[in-house]
Design goal:
The chain is mostly helical and about 150 residues long. It has 7 helices and no strands. Bound molecules: protoporphyrin IX containing FE and isoquinoline. Its cofactor is heme b.
Length: about 150
């Protein structure tokens, strides 16, 4: 696919603004996913075994922020290399973790929707169809990379 410098700039620029309250955004992101797909909560080990309420779980925010950061990085790589490159060892691990926990295509779709909604609410004054498309493509290509490694690890 072709990912332009303008598209990369849209992603990087909006992320720079959101970064300041990424923790809060991360929490919103997670809650949106569970609003649409409550059963997805069961996939996360740190939620299953937790005694504290969902919103107070200390692992939620950092986990969700990782997804934002990786999607943003994927935009940079798409422009530079025309594809998403995650270090092979970490990509293998990402694939294995998502395979083992039972993540399926629908989860990736719900997560994409929740990601774009969260972004739209975070930077309403910047949001545009072009920005939505740029983030959406970066996410989609990252998912392609993860899915290639979603198979039994041995
Ligand atoms: C774990 C990223 C999509 C569910 C992880 C980890 C990362 C990550 C970095 C930690 C892996 C590790 O422990 O080393 C991503 C990215 C995604 C994505 C970048 C999309 C572009 C999804 C989706 C779901 C999901 C769609 C399901 C709704 C999980 C679960 C774990 C996990 C259940 C294991 C959590 C645990 O119990 O420790 N993901 N993920 N992920 N992800 Fe994702
Ligand atoms: C996917 N994988 C790991 C953590 C996540 C947090 C929020 C949304 C999606 C995620």
């Amino acid at each position: 696919i072709c990912f332009t410098e303008e598209q990369e700039a849209l992603v990087v620029k909006s992320w720079a603004v959101m970064k300041k309250n990424s923790g809060e955004l991360g929490l919103k992101f997670f809650l949106k996913i569970f609003e649409i797909a409550p059963s997805a909560q069961k996939l996360f080990s740190f939620l299953k075994d937790s005694k504290v309420p969902l919103e107070q779980n200390p692992k939620l925010k950092p986990h969700a922020v990782t997804v934002f950061v990786m999607t943003c990085e994927s935009a940079v790589q798409l422009r530079k290399a025309g594809k998403v490159t995650v270090r092979e060892s970490s990509l293998k691990k990402l694939g294995a973790v998502h395979f083992r926990t039972g993540v399926v295509d629908e989860h990736f779709e719900v997560t994409k929707f929740a990601l774009l909604e969260t972004l739209k609410e975070a930077v309403p004054e910047m949001w545009s169809p072009e920005m939505k498309n740029a983030w959406g493509q970066a996410y989609d290509q990252l998912v392609v990379a993860i899915k290639t490694e979603m198979k039994p690890s041995s």
